[in-house]
Amino acid sequence: MFIRNIFTATALAGSILLSACNSAPQAEAPTEEEAATSQIAITTPWSRETAEGQDAGGAFMTIANSGTAADRLTGGSTPVAGELQVHTVDMTDGVMRMRQLEDGLEIPAGGSVTLKPGSFHIMLMQLKQPLRQGEAVPVSLTFEKAGTVEVELTVQPVGAQGPAVETMGGDDG
């Protein structure tokens, strides 16, 4: 009886060890931060025409994040400028001043941010050539989570406050 109990115990222990060896490793559940994602979409990217010799230009657009985590626009690049910076405009003592956002611009989860004249915007610094009305300017934007997002700025006339809106035929009257 004693030998039979030892044999049963040994067989049971062996089957437990064998099943443990054959089981797939348990994947750890992602942390809340790992499970959260950024889903960036950019609409109406545009810029203004610049004058000959002008060394900087602005870029504007709406950046939407339909993801579950906030993201941050940290910079980017373009072949037409030496540097791309993310800026804001502050009013100090009645004087409007631009300043670079050293930590970038947060794009909230489930929200959007509009870059526009007199507010958040992108500065194309050290322009290598003037921006000409009607041109498309390629820009690579860098986000902390979403990575690189490619856009094309449509260059609008000097003084434009937004992209030109095209109307499709018809009579308004």
Shape: globular
Mean pLDDT level: 83
CATH topology term of the domain at 37-156: Immunoglobulin-like
Number of helices: 2
Encode the helix/strand succession as letters: HHEEEEEEEEEE
Kindly report the name of the CATH homologous superfamily of the domain at 37-156: PCu(A)C copper chaperone
For the record, the CATH architecture of the domain at 37-156 stands as Sandwich
User: What is the alpha-carbon Rg in Å?
Assistant: 28 Å
Determine the strand fraction and express it as a percent band: 35-45%
Query: How is the biggest beta sheet arranged?
Result: 10 strands, mixed
Strands, count: 10
Question: Spans with pLDDT under 50 lasting ≥5 residues?
Answer: 2-25
CATH class of the domain at 37-156: Mainly Beta
Structural class, by secondary structure, is mainly beta
Please give the alpha-carbon distance between the first and last residues: 104 Å
Helix % is 10-25%
Walk me through the structure.
- By secondary structure, the protein is mainly beta.
- The protein has a domain at 37-156: Immunoglobulin-like, CATH 2.60.40.
- It is 14% helix and 45% strand.
- It has helices spanning 2-22, 32-35, and strands at residues 40-48, 56-65, 71-77, 81-92, 95-100, 105-107, 111-115, 121-127, 136-143, 147-156.
- Strands 1, 2, 3, 4, 5, 6, 7, 8, 9 and 10 form a 10-stranded mixed beta sheet that branches.
- It is globular and about 45 Å long.
